[in-house]
Amino acid sequence: MSEAIRVDALVKTFGRTRALDGLDLAVQTGEVHGFLGPNGAGKSTTIRILLGLLHADGGTARLLGGDPWRDATELHRRLAYVPGDVTLWPNLSGGEVIDLLGRLRGGLDTRRRAELLERFDLDPSKKGRTYSKGNRQKVALVAALASDVDLLLLDEPTSGLDPLMEEVFRQVIREEQQRDGRTVLLSSHILAEVEALCDRVTIIREGRAVETGTLAGMRHLTRTSIQVDLAGPATGLDTLPGVHDLQTHNGTVRFDVDTAALDAVLRQLTTVGIRSLTSQPPTLEELFLRHYDRAPANGKQQTEVAR
Amino acid sequence: MNSLTGTRALARLALRLDRVRLTVWVLGLAVMPMATAANYFKLYPTEAELRAVSGVLANPSLVALSGPLFDVSIGGLTAWKIGVTEFILVALMSLLTVVRHTRTEEEAGRLELVRATVIGRHAPLTAALLVTGLANLAIAVLTALGLMATGLPAAGSVAFGLATGLVGMLFAAVAAVAVQLTESARAATGLAGAVLGGTYLLRAVGDTGPTWLSWLSPTGWALHMRPYGGERWWVAALFVVVAAVFTTTGYALAGRRDVGAGLLPERPGPVAASPGLRSPLALAWRLHRGLLLGWAVGLALTGAVLGGAAAGIGDLETPNQQLTDILTRMGGRNGLTDAFLAAIFGLTGMVAAAYTVQVTLRLRQEESSGRVEVLLATRVGRLRWAASHLTFALLGTALLLAVAGLAGGIAYGAQVHDVGGQTGRLLGAALVQVPAAWVLAGLGTALVGLAPRLSSLAWAALIGSVLLVELGALFGLSQWIVDLTPFAHVPKLPGSAFTVTPMLWLTVVALALGAAGLAGLRRRDMPVA
Q: Which of A203, A225, B180, B524 is the most exposed place for a label (fewest CB within 10 A)?
């Protein structure tokens, strides 16, 4: 089985809203696949269909070689899920929830459980109602990661975590990558996280996949915006490869540069002499706007960056 | 900013959120007494007919259930017939409204958002009490006007409306304290509801024997304001004083605690799950055991208190010869006691059905809270998950009724020196209610499976059942309408003959509804918001 997840032309409507509009998604076994999209793009709906919670209105979905709706309980032995919005039973402790979910999945590695609790700095004795959003998410993460499963479905798992814990999460997922055959579908709207972890990425918008491929292949999407005050005239910049949307105004130069060309561009700038420099990685939103050829007027974008 | 800033905005929000719900409550509670009075005018147009029926109605077993009849008149009869039902419903409306706009909001985290705006510390509680007060005022005024419109005397009508509104406000005040004590809205509702149940029991016992007990109970006070029977206006002061005490306590407690917190400190739980917590059923046990225990204690008390009271009924004076004749035909004093016992177990069946509905609708709560998602993402299938909760709805109900029957049998048996015989008899009287309560579990399951957004209609079905059983005959409704409620088919034990056919039918209906619901649950999307 080379494909852990295969989704073709998936359609799902809720009343008049078309949440999924012919979505395609393919996740290879053993890869960490980034599932990117803004809020309401259909990421959670897709994952719920893959879990057999929602019934697709059209198209096909295959999960670990089975039908996610028909074979739900069979398939669920082999996967673990972390919802984007974790709610816990108010009167059960975090430790109890972790154990319960692990057992319902078919077993829990107790050593791994203890290690994860330690690394995520989670107190398992607190009751569900007293956890913060981030801590509830940690409970679900520990329960999922301590289970011995083939597939992890993670729906925006770090949206409530602090940067320190986000780093722990990245380390843990990287370790998962080392283990054989474990597949991860990581839904997110945080580009940096996806960049750091994922082998391949699918970007969805309004219920449709607009881009899919390896990160290297999508390198063109990641540009850095630079604003720089130079000691002299900005010569030679426009001829450098990887420089886009170059503008000069009263000695202030603004442009976007492909990440791969950054080094060469900075060399060129230092030869002229830098007085001040601001750089800003593109937000996911800007990438989407660019993708749809609906970029905001350059001037406006630049003033925001310049602040 | 003072502690009440923003009250008006919050009250408007609450009215907006509750516009349908409160309108239904207000109109329902205002129309019920009026319709009762209008029917009595039709049924008993002459004084003689009125006297005859009043004599029969005021027999001791009915006095325990509905309170004493203070005046032989259409007004007196109306206040007596509808009073207890009206007071219990208005109390329920009030405590549910207060809990909904305070602890429910707080538990859901919405209050945090609201309190971060320009809202004073006491504004949410004040707004909740204000809205509840407004609803009670509307009920009091409309009830009084409605009763006057049927031609009843103004003083009695005003007294009845006033009593209704005051009972409502008193329980709003009780809820204002309850919501400070617990962290969950469910527990707060349970606490205030337990107080309501307790006051009903006190009054029932007080009205059959030691009258002073009835003076400990607000529902008793409301009856003893004696609408149409020489009104005692000073009783209103009791309500005002006690409601003020509770309200003040509520505010004092609210001022001392943090948002989201209760007064009892949260204790840490176990670091790991016990070995037994490994199935949906084990989880359901964890989630339901507290509720089941609370209900069991409540129903054991109810059974014991009313069973004990039943023993005294045969000794009471009957008001006239005519009643004595009827009773003799019914089987004498024992017939009277049996009729009372049958009536209380009929009521107990409907009360236990509230537990049935509560537990069945837990399915929906688990779904809309999102907790079901992580469970269904494990190898637990939907049917297994649903079965785990329905086990408690079905067996829990049977257990509760058994507890009520045993407690009633032992208490009554001890008084008449026949514990062995009476325990079995009353256990039977309680257990015949089980299939009828199960029909509501079936209905709840059907709603959750087929029309999840409408699942709270199961509560409407329960309230409708109570009203049909209590008032159906009075309103001269056709038998087929009264027969819509499962409780109309339960054999009236002890006293009447036991027939197995209706029990079988009720069970079949419950199972059919449940099966339809589960089939729908298997097929539909989850979670539905």
A: B524
